[in-house]
Amino acid sequence: MIGERRIVLEPREVPLGGVRGMNVLRALPHRNLPTIGAWCFLDRFGPADTRMRVEPHPHIGLQTVTWPLVGEIRHRDSLGSDADLRRGQLNLMTAGNGISHSEYSIGDNPIPLDALQFWVVLPESARHGAAGFERHTSLPGLALPAEQGADASATVVLGEFAGVRSPATVHTPIVGAEIVVPAGTRVRLPLRPEWEHAVMLVEGDAQVAEHPLSLNDTLYLGDSRDTVTVESAEGALLFVLGGEPFEDEIVMWWNFAGRSHDEIAEAREEWEAASARFGEVEGHDVRIPAPPLPPVRLMPRSRKL
Questions:
Q1: What DSSP character marks residue 245?
Q2: Which InterPro entries match (predicted)?
Q3: How far, in Å, CA of 75 to CA of 19, rounded?
Q4: Alpha-carbon distance 229 to 190, whole Å?
Q5: 141-243, superfamily in CATH?
Q6: d(Cα 150, Cα 153) in Å, to the nearest integer?
Q7: Which residues contact 138 (CB under 8 A, 6 or more apart)?
Q8: What is the pTM of this model?
Q9: CATH for 11-138+248-272?
Q10: How far apart are CA 129 and CA 95, in angstroms?
């Protein structure tokens, strides 16, 4: 068991540059915490008026979870998927042994855009499997009875929360849920004590486990909790993520999640060689080249929390 924790994972600003040409706030991976459950990556891009153009790029060994807050995003991938995404909908792409995709904002001009982008690392049983893409336009929700004020509500994006399950495909015990807390509300969020959890403040103000959060902070809670108390004076939008602690050590580099340096190097070489492993995304005449590997062997990131 990990035990109860109350550690703020402050996001760091990361310039993505290139054709995307924008900065993001990154909470995961954290230098002391590579995963929370199977969640291995969390970016927030926005809010900003921007023209997003993410040209085709590859993934292995993970799922991408795109959760828009403002604006519309067009997803295209090497499976032939072509889907627009807007608030309240979920795009879930499973890389398996290899996939490539692009992400564009809708239209030719800058638009208001804000979204959360997550990665979920795949276990051994799924990471060498076939790629896949799912679009879910309707996700289950539930009311959360308040101890004070109006009831809160939850949308179950991925996995299971409070006995309600998302229709999206998962490969590990996991939870990803958006929580809306009205102004003046105090509510207990139900948790599974055998899972580790974290809560991100996306909008508004909140105290989680009696700890005040700043905007975009993620509070890591560890495990061994069956509830956590959330309070908000002005109202809050939160995202709960967690799941069964992921036991495998992973090597993450660029857009790849593997288990060894050699596996990552092989995937990079195949992308640069335009291997059939990653296919082609129709409608593009350029793609993002892989950066050079560092001059040292890539090693797994260790959990220090």
A1: P
A2: Pirin, Pirin_C_dom, Pirin_N_dom, RmlC-like_jellyroll, RmlC_Cupin_sf
A3: 16
A4: 9
A5: Jelly Rolls (2.60.120.10)
A6: 10
A7: none
A8: 0.96
A9: 2.60.120.10
A10: 8
* Helix spans in 119-260 (H): 124-127
Token representation of residue 86: 């807007």
The full length of the chain comes to 305
Which tens digit of pLDDT belongs to each residue from 151-170? 999 999 999 999 999 999 99
Query: What sign results for the dihedral spanned by CA atoms 20, 22, 27, 30?
Result: positive
What is the Cα gyration radius of the chain?
Answer: 19
The 10 Å Cβ neighbour count of residue 261 is: 17
Q: Please name every residue paired with 162 in a beta bridge, in sequence order, or none if there are none.
A: none
For the stretch 13-33, pLDDT in tens is 987 654 445 678 999 999 899
Q: Where are the domains of the chain?
A: 11-138+248-272, 141-243
Burial level of 296, CB count in 10 A (0-12/13-18/19+)?
exposed
CA distances from 146 to 50, 89, 183 (A): 38, 26, 11
Task: Yes or no: say if 260 and 200 are a contact pair by the CB < 8 Å rule.
Answer: no
